[in-house]
């Protein structure tokens, strides 16, 4: 079966070499190689399409026979998988730099605020002399924005992957955060954490 699929892809690639179309897409929203594999798999399911997705460059090179599909249909396919895409030809280096800077700034802001809120929680948890009556509620109040807003990119990606019945590193991270937070809340409310 795999050999048949491989031969079919080779024939499509040979056809596109002579009379086909090659499109390069700029991709957004990928956080790991599993995301790239998901996009590649989704694109390769289209008739007459052979795609290769590069996670490192956030791009996809797609070959297809003339008339098999359109660039907008390819973009729609990527979008339906929960990622962003646009024609690389329509993208300038300045646009890519601006988007990257915006994304990095947003992530650094989340990281900075999360670290500032997490430091007192770690200190209270590790240094017994700093603890005061019902300090756990204070720690819970400080950590709630960290595990919700600070970790939102992981949760958003995990929910998107769940919708497409896929798992990535974001799924594992989100599950870990939710499990640890749930246990901590349970321990504070119903457990013996306040003793």
Protein described:
Helix content is 63%, strand content 13%. The protein is built from 7 helices and 4 strands; from the N terminus they run αβαββαβαααα. A hairpin with a 4-residue loop joins strand 2 and strand 3 (59-65). The longest helix has 34 residues, at 93-126. The chain is elongated and about 70 Å long. Residues 1-16 have low confidence and may be disordered.
Task: Please list the strands of the largest sheet in the order they lie side by side.
Answer: 2-3-1-4
Number of domains: 2
Termini separation comes to: 62 Å
Radius of gyration, in angstroms, nearest whole number:
23 Å
Count of separate DSSP helical elements: 7
Can you summarize the main beta sheet? Answer: 4 strands, antiparallel
- Which class of secondary structure composition applies to the elements? alpha+beta
Content of β-strand = 5-15%
What's the average pLDDT?
86
SSE inventory with pairings:
Layout: H1 2-19, E1 20-28, H2 33-44, E2 49-54, E3 59-65, H3 71-80, E4 84-87, H4 93-126, H5 135-150, H6 152-163, H7 169-189
Antiparallel strand pairs: 1-3, 1-4, 2-3
Helix pairs in contact: 4-5, 5-7, 6-7
What structural keywords apply?
195 residues; alpha+beta; Alpha-Beta Plaits; 4-stranded antiparallel sheet; elongated; 2 domains
Short description:
The protein has 7 helices and 4 strands; from the N terminus they run αβαββαβαααα. By secondary structure, the protein is of the alpha+beta class.
